[in-house]
Amino acid sequence: MVSKVSRAKIRAKKHRRLRNHIVGTAAKPRLAVFRSNNHMYAQIIDDTVGNTLVSASTLQADVKADLSKTNDVAAAAKLGTVIGKKAVEAGIEEVIFDRGGFIYQGKIQALADAAREAGLKF
């Protein structure tokens, strides 16, 4: 019988490979993105000390209020705008984008584009 590796394990392996090359510093923290079947999460992390500087998700009341669904491209774009604005308010302008092993299209791309429009550079 043929055994097939789950998509979640494949994504986790891709993410581990990516993380060998991506490290967030105090000057240029890492924008980490995770999406589940129902929600999306974004964090800006300083890996040198292991602190989350800014975070946002579609679970938050202010983000969820404007959305009809929390798992589509529109929700990802809204989340990108929110994380971008929070980062600029916290004094963060440049980040390294960590797509979390996900393919850069659809929701991940919409979040990244919205964060760029909100003022982040990566």
Give a brief description.
With 122 residues, the chain is an alpha+beta fold. It contains four helices and four strands. It has a single domain, classed as Nucleotidyltransferase, domain 5, CATH 3.30.420.100.
CATH class category name: Alpha Beta
Q: Report the oligomer.
A: single chain
Major sheet attributes: 4 strands, mixed
Give me the CATH architecture, please.
2-Layer Sandwich
Helix content: 25-40%
How much strand?
15-25%
pLDDT < 50 stretches: none
What CATH calls the topology is: Nucleotidyltransferase, domain 5
Q: Strand order, main sheet: write it out.
A: 3-2-1-4
Number of helices: 4
Overall pLDDT score = 95
The arrangement of helices and strands along the chain is HEEEHHEH
Tell me the radius of gyration. Answer: 15 Å
Distance between the ends: 45 Å
- What is the general shape? globular
Q: How many domains?
A: 1
Strand segment count:
4
Structural class: alpha+beta
